[in-house]
Amino acid sequence: MVGLYMLFIIARISDSLLFLFPAPTMFIYMQDLMRFLREDEALKTMSVMDGSSESERISKSTLKNWVVNAFRERRALALTLNDTKTAVNKLHHMVNVLVGITIVVICLVILEIATSKFLLFVSSQIVVVAFIFGNTCKTIFEALIFLFVMHPYDVGDRCEIDGVQMIVEEMNILTTVFLRYDNQKIIFPNSTLSTKPISNYYRSPDMGDAVEFHVHIATPADKIAIMKQKITSYIEIKKDHWYASPTVVLMELEGLNMMKMAVWLRHRMNHQNMGEKWQRRALLVEQMVTIFKELDIEYRLHPLDINIRTMPTASSARLPSTWEASPS
Fold first, then answer.
1. 32: burial class by Cβ within 10 Å (0-12, 13-18, 19+)?
2. Interatomic CA distance for residues 217 and 214, integer angstroms
3. Stated pTM of the model
């Protein structure tokens, strides 16, 4: 509901701006929002737009990305509600069948139609049915507990199971359909999923990340200090992408000629949208490469000592064409 409300507000603002200004407006500024909203609502609107709080304006691409993300979340919510409703309806039918059988048996007992021999016969048949379908009933019960009590994910959530990232495509009582990164559908029994650890990216808070790199051991300490300062400054400038105060640490030495370093930072988002995560990371890596080139920080191999023990004997008396033979 909040997303639809914000979408309605932005649509009204965009239409009003086109009406008020004769020339087409490329950006929406804080002053434009203040014409329709209170100051706190305008600030909240600017904050929900990725990149708008940094530049203090909303561009057309920013508005488009926000609308697309709102539509995706709304679609995932609708699919979740639809699958949940379907599962509840199936469960309701199963309960109706059990209740109907119970009512029939009680009515037969009350009307004294069912004798002791008949009840004994019915009990024996129930034991046989329980022996045949006992495992199935156990599986259904475990699936119901997993689906309605544990409920570790919804439709559209990015999950990681057995080291594989997948998107929840469909939820049923007995099975869950996942969509892998290559759009291959994978069906897991819910009873099996209840025994596996499931990582849910969508329900996670703002997540961290790490960028590892190597520098030569002979790199001066002042260059490393400047490099840390520039990387930290760039991350703090992009406050819409990452939290402030990242950590640049020296992790270990490798091969006595390289120092392994890492930048530990925290995104202002979880990794549900993996494409956006890698785009932000790519911008940071590109900036780090620029910093390395500015500071002349290069990768160098470890020097090798070459010892020549013997030289091959000359097998020819011919001289190069540029040499002159000495007079004998």
1. buried
2. 9
3. 0.62
